[in-house]
Structures are given as C-alpha cells and as structure tokens.
Amino acid sequence: MIAITGATGQLGQHVIELLLKTVPASQLVAIVRNPAKAEALSQQGVDVRQADYTDQAAFTTALAGVDKLLLISSSEVGQRTPQHLNVINAAQAAGVKFIAYTSLLHADTSPLALHVEHVETENALAASGIPYALLRNGWYSENYLASAPPALEHGVFIGSAGEGKIAAATRADYAAAAARVISEEGHAGKVYELAGDSAWTLGELAAELSRQSGKNVVYQNLNEADFAAALKGFGLPAGLADLLADSDVGASKGGLFDDSRTLSTLIGRPTTTLTESVKSIL
Known about the structure:
Layout: E1 2-5, H1 10-19, E2 28-32, H2 39-43, E3 47-50, H3 56-62, E4 68-71, H4 80-94, E5 98-104, H5 115-128, E6 132-137, H6 141-145, H7 148-154, E7 156-159, H8 171-183, E8 191-194, H9 202-213, E9 218-221, H10 224-233, H11 238-252, H12 262-267, H13 274-281
Parallel strand pairs: 1-2, 1-4, 2-3, 4-5, 5-6, 6-8, 7-9
Helix pairs in contact: 1-8, 3-4, 4-5, 9-13, 10-11
C-alpha cells in the first residue's frame, strides 16, 4: 500500500495520476483534509482517507496498513516542522516501512529561508529509524509563470533574482520523480537533488515571454524590500510576499541552480523546457 499526503494538492494530483498508470488503484491511499475534493479519486478505486497535518492521531489511523508514504511537504510555511513531525510520528506508530519526502534543492546549504523547516524535517526523518529518501525539489516553473499575465499586461516582469540562474522544472516533472521513487524499490537512503535540465534568468524568462507573445516584456530587478512591498501591493499576504522576495534573493546567490540532471535521469526523459512552459501558459 502506497499513501500520498496532500493528494488533492497540485503536486499530489499529478503523482496519483501517474501512479494509476502502473499501480492498481486498490493499492493507493490518498490522504486529504477534505474528502469531498477527492471524490474523483474514490470513483477510480483509490482509498481516500481524511487526516490533517496538525492531527497526529488522525494520521496514525489514516496510515493503517500503509507500507510506503510519500510525504508532500505542507503548504503552511512556518508550521511545517511540527506538522511534518506529526506525520513522521504517525508513520512510526503505524509501522510504515519507507518514506519519500519532498524537500528543497540543496536544503542543507541553501541560502533560501525556506530551507530551515526542510532541514528540520530531514533531521526528524533520520532520527525516526524509518528508511527514507529525500526528493529535494528545485523551483516549479509555475511559480514564475503565474506572474506572466500581469507581466504581459504591463510590459514588466519584476523580481529580485538578478542574474541568478534558475533551474526550474514543472510540477509534472517533479511528480514523475516522486511517482517513480515511491513505487519502486531501491531508493532508501538516497538524496536526489532535482532540478531542470536547463537554467534561465528572469531576464531570459521576460525575453521568452516577449518572443512568444509578440509583446515587449522587460525584467526589472528590485531590492528585496521593494519587491516584497510590490507583492503586498498586489494583494499577497505579508508572510508569502516576504518569503517570495527572500527566495528570489536566494536565487541570485545560486540557491535555485543545479546542473546535475538528476531529475531527467530519474524520470527517463528531458525536463520541460522554458520554451514549452511559456507556450503552455500563453
């Protein structure tokens, strides 16, 4: 039995879709906060179980009979460490034999503030005694492409990444790696630094948007404080705006770059290019 947390989230949905191609639905457990959102999975024969990252007891019940667990990191930055500890403790109590965890690219050396909770979770996994693998995911291309519509409207793409190279890949690319690691044997003890085959700057992203759309888009680099203020002005919550600005600055320091091609090797195909991602969003 394979369980996936956050199964109705954007990454989780991709993973289950891929697993259903190779694993019988009866061997898949989708752990969700709101089972009503997972009705389509139930109809396909996936065992949908309710549990929240904040409720260790509920997770222990939800993991009954589960052999392998894909722990997709919580979306609640600032609460991740205690939430992930709840899941790891529940996995111990339920007798789970293997955990794959979606961490952050080069988490142990990353300049991004996001790395702290991921490292704390990695340490908790090491202390748990449960065999595990780390899927250290780089940035999702979608993180930046979500800003494409306003950039095309105003002709300016803003950020704080400077000339930092960003080796992004799509959620579908990272999901393919997660599906493989959680469904195959032989991945325990592995640390996978996962990123796109090619890297680009935000200036190059703006140029690609210009090329494909026929509209002139330029990249404007801001300092961290000004970028965070701009994001707040667009209506983003303060915490998220500060986090995104910090992550961009981390990218300027090489925090989102990796050229090992571990991801494409693991999934057996090239990762999605910037050109393809921009074409898709347009």
